[in-house]
């Protein structure tokens, strides 16, 4: 959803930018290339109208007449066409200056007699919009036309100006131009309008062409050889010499123009089909009107709305699939834009914009790649963050707690293995939490024979909810199907009605080991993540957790074995401690008290919880060596002799030997405690006379706790002293008998 939202914002922004570029004309050159392709290959041009004929001045005409046609030649041609019954006579040639008087009078008389001659006007300057509100006319700075007498004799006037596009290709013509207080239609429009005003047949049947936003109408250009193939172009000289029958012009609109290079007014104009004579461009314009095969251009708002609509469609496609599919979608969409515009131009002669839409498709695909790259970077960052946090967790387990910690590699290795086994489920749960965005994760050890499933490990889970979820876990274990319960949980499932309002949503997934459900993972209070970008649990989350099920089950099985091993070790320790207790009545209570003291000191050191547990579990074995001391010495009520004292001191060595070569981390720690808990910080202790930090940390902690309890508890050879006395001794012996750091922690706990 987040990806789609990002894509929608990006696509709408792109649509807005492309709309602005389109409306400003910045994309016009590219669009014109596409338009010319449609002109040349769509074959949307109409057949040549039977109502149109062209009389052209060619190179052969000049050779046949012996000179370029003069005004008397034009007069004779117009008279012949009028007698032949021509519908209208359109001249692409104007006569701006007076010539020989006789020829001028003859030409004026022929034009006036015909009564259906339309003459051209031309502005040699660049046309500019008129600027009048609502006007679609262009304004001419100057105007060239025929001399006044000839112009007055004409039935109508029309301009022959063309208005090339930005690439200088002629595809349209201004419908009207203004000069002074008069408006001149384009020559073809003037011809049709003149025929209508004269009441000639055909004039009323021609509809005005649609104009674009610039006041132009598009010319449906004919290929250069269309007139020759249709036999509708006649040589000027052959008509004058009577070689063309009058019937060839009866009822037709006849266009007179020059189609030879080098003569005045015989200009070449670039069109989508290449360069063509201006007279043939006018013929194509007139043919467009006569056949009704006009070209329309979609209004700008079509393109703008279409861009925003396509932006939404692309969001639902490109931003909802993988990059490979996105590439295919991009190619298909681009092809569809070109094919659609091509078909619409061919079938309906409608110009649809292609470049803005193609640019939007390509840009949207590019944005999708950037979004995918950003997601990949974020995914990599979050993955590395998860791994970094777990690496920190492992590092915490294996790195020294402080400079005073024990350095025995075997004990460190045993502690590491033991800790990793117990902590692996929690690490796996944190991976679940970080990946899916669950605010809390709880793993249950599911056994059908148990009345209530047993929580195995938890991360961020409120303790008061663990028991209430037992029924959910039991049902999931029995059904073997995942539960997805989103807000509101207490209305969707009655079994959840007792849950706290702190549960926003919940997902429970059974993990199968072999053929039966062995574990149920419960996650709740989801937030979006890169891996799972929704606020509710989905089937995608179920798949994600299930993929990690094997690693989870292995971790849980290892944890179970670790717990079983821990229970076995603790049971052994307690049995040995009881064996000593049977010989020394005070030892049992002493064990309980000293265990509490060492736990208090270890927690004050801010060491890891596992390290605290290891020290706590090792302390009951600190006097295990007393099992080898004779009863006469161990249970003696009075003071010991020097010899008896030396024998009593051997209990540290005996205890260390009993516990030596153990594979268990707890027993190894117990060995260190048993062998060093009577060492002094100043080096005057026994059995090795170690000093300072050469004494193992566990031994230093045990020494302080052991002495304090010995002072404040009753023994067979003395009465219990007040706690204040014990605290005073600890304070006075700090730095001599006891580690000053540990002594300070201990004293703060009793402050």
TrEMBL record:
What residue intervals traverse the membrane? 301-319, 326-345
> Might you give the EC number(s) for this enzyme?
3.1.4.52
Q: What GO molecular function terms would the record report?
A: cyclic-guanylate-specific phosphodiesterase activity
Where do the HD-GYP domain residues begin and end? 565-751
The reply on keyword Ubl conjugation is no
Specify the enzyme's EC class, one word: hydrolase
Q: Which keywords appear in this protein's UniProt record, sorted alphabetically?
A: Hydrolase, Membrane, Transmembrane, Transmembrane helix
Name used for this protein in its record: Cyclic di-GMP phosphodiesterase response regulator RpfG
